[in-house]
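help with these tokens:
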Amino acid sequence: MPLMGHERRGAILDKLRGSDGPVSGTALASAAGVSRQVIVQDIALLRADGHDIVATNRGYVLREGVDTSDVPTRLVKVRHGIDQVEDELQTIVDLGGAVQSVMVNHRAYGKITADLDIRSRRGVERYLEDIRSGKSTPLMTVTSGYHFHRITADTEAALDDIESALAAKGFLAEVLPYEKDAFE
């Protein structure tokens, strides 16, 4: 028998709290005995109640209780072709970085952001599998390859190394004056 509203949302929170990684909407729906669409609605209600739930390409992650204020973070603007996505992401994770999100500044639609949470070559491969499946295309395709990544690492030096490696590969792009405040 399916769980009712508040019980189901409590169970979702428990499942997310007890997980070491993202939990898919399908897995949550199966555990609760409801459709995936009901889970999407429950996640929206939980967010409205103040729970920091992030949707990644692999599922939902609860970020409550995680202090990210001291984690070195950098926003970089890059540009490359679709055939270079793997190289870009592997460069970042191989040097100890995590790609938290991708953002574009579309002239008609404005700022568009998607959480990625890619931390390893395995994460890169999962992301690429989603793209190769044909179900999605990289967000960068709507802005001629230009996009931003919010990257975290253990140290500022690691972020410097990542930025230098991206520059050496020709991926770094100049941040334009009107973009300086758009993503901060």
In short: Strands lie at 53-56, 59-62, 73-79, 98-106, 110-118, 146-152. The radius of gyration is 18 Å.
